[in-house]
Amino acid sequence: MRQVTRSSPQQLSVSATLDLQSVERELSELWKQNTGATDVEEDGAVMRARVLNLMVYVAVEEALEEVNELLGEISSAHPCRVIIMFAGREEADQDIEMFVSAHCVSSSGAGGKNLCGEQVTLKARGRFAVELPSAAVPLLVPDLPVFLWWRDAPRLDDQTFSTLTRASDRVIIDSVAFRRPYDDVLALVALLGRRKREQAAISDLNWARLTGWRTLLASFYDVEEYRAALSLINHVRIEYVPHDNAPEAIAAKALILAGWLASRLGWSIAPAQSLMKNGEGAQEVAAEKDGRQILIEFAAVERRAEMQGWIARIELSAEASASPSKFVVLRSKDGRYLETQVSGAGETLSSRALLGGDKSEAELLACELEIISHDRIYEEAISVAARMLGAK
């Protein structure tokens, strides 16, 4: 049984020149106080446990408590130095404030050590918000991987974002928060190109949420008797729940899933092609493979408010095929299950339901903290999605 304890944040003064030694001394004292140890290296008392650096950027002060709770869930698997930055860009000017705290994971087993990590919280408002990277980057522990979790609407062309990404090995964003999905997808493709040259990598929690969908779609190809029909697919329909951020735009998750499907199956999007509305109000784009035309259609549907940005259903159709001819993955109305259906000649040939609720944000983040390398499949999916939007 593991229990996470957190010390009360203690404020440190921030001078014009950041005093790193005073920060380290304060953190050492917090470890002693949090565990009752007189020596931070004392066997059986407390062990410094830092396997990575995690910088977290938030733009809403209420998000700080949410982040603290999430970090408590992942600290046992990923003990780290956490540097949280709060940027109140639209607030009255206030210079950087610094708070330090320690969090320890204790084991109830005999002889177990207390594994302690540390957290530095930096707060700045107004014109001082842009100075947060200059305070955060020097606090990173050398020779450990650096992750940046940008927990805000991605500002992919923002100077603060650029400065922090240059200091990072992996950048974690969430495209579900895109305010301008089309512009932001195009900007993300440009960013991926720059990051690849600079050896940093991009993670997208929205991509991780698609794991179940991708697994079930790929499973159709594992069935030998389905492959002939799957090779003749000429219509894909993706139904999604619009997001209040941009109700007229296709949800980023739907675009990414379509990009993944097209990139894995070798479908090309002609340079002259881009999304167009059809007579039913859905948006569609044409793809091609070996002279075969494939129509990819995106249709908005209504669901519960908490399902904004989610995919509701995807159907692959092969109209020229003998039975089976339709392959479907859909989310149950309550959002808890993903269901698959294979049908043809007016009847359902097979169906099954799997527990398919999205993982929590903490679970998604914990998985991303295990990966540093580039995700080539994600990058290709985003690139194809950008071509659907008319990018050259």
Task: Walk me through this protein's architecture.
Residues 37-45 have low confidence and may be disordered. Strands 1, 2, 3, 4, 5, 6, 7, 8, 9 and 10 form a ten-stranded mixed β-sheet that branches. The chain is 28% helix and 31% strand. The protein has eleven helices and 18 strands.
Task: State the gist of this model.
This protein is α/β, with parallel strands linked by helices. 28% of the residues lie in helices and 31% in strands.
Query: What profile does the largest beta sheet have?
Result: 10 strands, mixed
First and last CA, distance: 54 Å
The best one-word shape is elongated
Residue fraction in strands: 25-35%
- State the low-pLDDT regions, or none: 37-45
Rg over CA atoms, rounded to whole Å, is 24 Å
Averaged pLDDT = 83
Helix content: 25-40%
Helix and strand element order: EEHEEHEEEHEHEHEHHHEHEEEEEEEHH
Query: How many DSSP H or I helices?
Result: 11
Structural class: alpha/beta
Number of strands: 18
